[in-house]
Design a protein that fits this description.
By secondary structure, this protein is mainly α. It has two domains: 8-98, no CATH class; 113-185, no CATH class. The chain has helices at residues 8-15, 29-44, 68-98, 113-120, 134-150, 174-185; strands at residues 21-22, 26-27, 59-60, 65-66, 126-127, 131-132, 171-173. The strands form three sheets. The chain has a three-stranded antiparallel beta sheet with strand order 5-7-6. α1 (8-15) runs antiparallel to α2. 17% of the residues are buried. The mean pLDDT is 88.
């Protein structure tokens, strides 16, 4: 369901209407207030307001009640606002459906949150033998995460090369990193 973009002004005009009273023949105050509360609740939830009929409102023939014309005018305004929102939403749908198909370069890839978390939280064992430089591997993972966040293709995993850590210094286990890169080559964006 699409949200209706009700503004604070719309809500305020329904929540605090300036409805005059008349001694007899007006709408029962409790009935009108119940309708207004329902409309405000729908507006605050960003939901559409269905057409409002005054036929369900009772008339107060012996007591003071809301003057019918201003109540009907307010309900008519709400209906007009909803109609304008509906027309704008319909026009947007038509514009999207008639716009040309975006080029492959314009399409964003949908990398899921789970995929991004998997890359971000990947931890490689540290070793002093056959180890890649930590900074280089981390820089590559940062480039992968940036590409995922922007909805772009991942950097070329096949051509990723890392220097071995210097003798006596620890780094990421090269077997674990290579295994991760193999998994990364098989990773596909969600449809």
């Amino acid at each position: 369901m699409t949200r209706t973009p009700w503004t604070a002004d719309h809500i305020a005009r329904v929540e605090n209407p300036a409805l005059p009273m008349q001694p007899r023949g007006g709408y029962v105050v409790a009935d009108v207030q119940r309708q207004l509360d329902r409309i405000v609740a729908l507006m605050r939830g960003g939901r559409p307001v269905p057409p409002i009929a005054t036929t369900a409102l009772r008339r107060s023939y012996l007591r003071e009640g809301y003057a019918p014309e201003p109540v009907e005018a307010l309900f008519s305004h709400v209906g007009e606002w909803q109609r304008q929102f509906d027309e704008a939403a319909h026009a947007a749908v038509v514009a999207r459906s008639t716009s040309p198909e975006p080029s492959p370069a314009d399409r964003r890839l949908n990398w899921t949150r789970q995929q991004q978390v998997w890359v971000r939280e990947m931890q490689f064992p540290s070793t002093r033998r056959s180890a890649y430089e930590v900074g280089e591997v981390d820089d590559f993972l940062d480039r992968v995460l940036v590409a995922m966040a922007k909805g772009e293709e991942l950097p070329d995993v096949q051509s990723a090369k890392f220097y071995m850590s210097r003798l006596g210094r620890s780094g990421y286990d090269s077997v674990a990193v290579d295994h991760f890169l193999d998994q990364l080559t098989r990773l596909r964006p969600a449809e």
